[in-house]
């Protein structure tokens, strides 16, 4: 079971700093590793492993999917990457220091929105009061209908 939220985050704002952090941890920087890191920066937010392997729709060089998955797992163990599961789709990966840690997702259109933790503080407090659990929306987002899909499904629309 992945417990990514409890790992220390590697804060590296540029590709070369991430690669230096990998070397400092004894990892070789292969061309596949470099391409995965570059794709994470280029994506600018959560992206699937298969999108990375496909070169982000032609923006980057394609990489073997098995290499992408292996590198993402290594990066997550190091605290460089986090992932979120959205509905029945694939896990989405992003650089740990570049994304909000909490998410909401539309169950109709699939829109994923990253939020600062403070936005959901009241929701977490209500869950804790009702159940005793400390809720986290880092690995699995809150699912619901976005404003656009609510408007489309409204009987007045």
Describe this structure in words.
About 40% of the residues lie in helices and about 15% in strands. With about 160 residues, the protein is α+β, with helices and mostly antiparallel strands. The chain is globular, with a radius of gyration of 17 Å. The chain has 2 domains: about 90 residues, Winged helix-like DNA-binding domain superfamily/Winged helix DNA-binding domain (Arc Repressor Mutant, subunit A), CATH 1.10.10.10; about 50 residues, Ferric-uptake regulator, C-terminal dimerisarion domain (Dna Ligase, domain 1). The N terminus is likely disordered.
State the gist of this model:
The protein is built from 7 helices and 6 strands, in the order ααβαααββββαβα. With 157 residues, the chain is an alpha+beta fold.
What class would the helix/strand composition place it in? alpha+beta
Strand content: 15-25%
CATH architecture label name of the largest domain: Orthogonal Bundle
CATH T-level fold name of the largest domain: Arc Repressor Mutant, subunit A
CATH class of the largest domain: Mainly Alpha
List how many beta strands DSSP finds: 6
Largest sheet: 3 strands, antiparallel
Rg over C-alpha atoms, rounded to the nearest angstrom: 17 Å
Give the full name of the CATH homologous superfamily of the largest domain. Winged helix-like DNA-binding domain superfamily/Winged helix DNA-binding domain
Q: Tell me the strand order in the biggest sheet.
A: 1-3-2
User: How would you describe the shape?
Assistant: globular
Low-pLDDT segments: 1-5
Helix content: 40-55%
Helix and strand run: HHEHHHEEEEHEH
The tally of structural domains comes to: 2
Count of helix runs: 7
From the N-terminal CA to the C-terminal CA, the straight-line distance is 43 Å
């Amino acid at each position: 079971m992945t417990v990514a939220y409890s790992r220390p985050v590697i804060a590296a704002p540029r590709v070369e700093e991430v690669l230096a952090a990998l070397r400092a941890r004894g990892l070789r920087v292969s061309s596949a590793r470099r391409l995965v890191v570059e794709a994470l920066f280029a994506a600018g937010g959560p992206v699937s492993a298969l999108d990375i392997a496909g070169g982000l729709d032609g923006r980057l060089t394609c990489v073997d999917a098995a290499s992408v998955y292996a590198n993402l797992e290594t990066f997550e163990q190091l605290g460089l990457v986090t992932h979120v599961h959205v509905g029945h789709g694939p896990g989405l990966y992003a650089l740990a220091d570049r994304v909000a840690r909490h998410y909401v997702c539309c169950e109709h259109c699939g829109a994923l929105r990253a939020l600062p933790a403070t936005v959901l503080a009241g929701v977490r407090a209500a869950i804790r009061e009702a159940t005793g659990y400390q809720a986290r929306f880092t690995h699995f987002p809150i699912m619901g209908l976005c404003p656009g899909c609510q408007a489309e499904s409204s009987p007045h629309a």
